[in-house]
Amino acid sequence: MLDDARAKLIHQLQCAYSGELAAGYAYRGHWHSVRDAGERERIRQIEAEEWHHRRLVGGLLAQLCARPIRSREAIFWIIGRSIAALCHLGGWFFPIYGAGRLERRNIIEYEDAATFAAACGHHEMIDCLLTMAEVEWEHEHYFRHKAAGHPFARLFRLWEAPPPKETIRAKNPHPALPPRFARGQGHPLSLTRERVPVVLLPRAREKVPRSGG
Ligand SMILES: [Fe+2]
Ligand SMILES: [Fe+2]
């Protein structure tokens, strides 16, 4: 049972790690393709948060003595780069719509990972994982709000809305969770709530500065 949960946690984190790679590149192309300065800044921020998540997930995998899956990395690198290129062709609505749908799944991905972490006794990872789920919730909320204001939203039904953000903590408590692993205190990697600082530079290739995570 423990081994099964640990295997599921590792697989979930390997999927998330590569998913964040695709997301990072896709958002890089996305913010380059939008004209509104406020939207560019927010999507650029989201890109930085996805790279931050990838570093965090990589740390969790290392803690479990596991590694990313090379073939998955290659596939998701291609997916991310392809989406980035398509953002320049797909107009304004479809990249926003696609991003929102994906973010909806990302929330569940980290909630499931937290469940597996609890099941195999890695309580120290729960806060980090649920905090990432909350950040994905904020991403979904942003894209939902944007997509809903576009006329195409009448033609393309929006994806199912997630429950309120508070439910991420409320529905994922673990009875065995010691008090010291309460929000923000559990793990040296549990710093995802902090906004990743983004330095606005004219080129997309600069490295996003590391945050405290
Ligand atoms: Fe993410
Ligand atoms: Fe996200």
CATH class label: Mainly Alpha
Compute the average pLDDT: 84
Q: Largest sheet at a glance?
A: none
CATH topology: Ferritin
List unreliable stretches of 5+ residues.
178-182, 185-192, 199-213
SS field, number of helical segments? 6
Task: Kindly estimate the percentage of residues that lie in beta strands according to DSSP.
Answer: under 5%
Structural class: mainly alpha
Intertermini distance: 31 Å
Rg, rounded, reads: 17 Å
The topology string of helices and strands comes to HHHHHH
Strands, total number: 0
CATH architecture: Up-down Bundle
Name the hetero compounds present: fe (ii) ion
User: What number of structural domains do the residues give?
Assistant: 1
Commentary on this structure:
The longest helix has 32 residues, at 2-33. This protein has helices at residues 2-33, 37-63, 70-87, 93-119, 126-148, 166-170. It starts with a helix and ends in a 43-residue tail after the last helix. Helices cover 62% and strands 0% of the residues. The protein has a single domain, classed as Ferritin (Up-down Bundle). With 213 residues, the protein is mainly alpha-helical. Helix 1 packs antiparallel against helix 2 (37-63) and helix 4 packs antiparallel against helix 5. The protein has 6 helices and no strands. The structure holds fe (ii) ion (2 copies). The site of one fe (ii) ion has 6 residues, from helix 4 and helix 5.
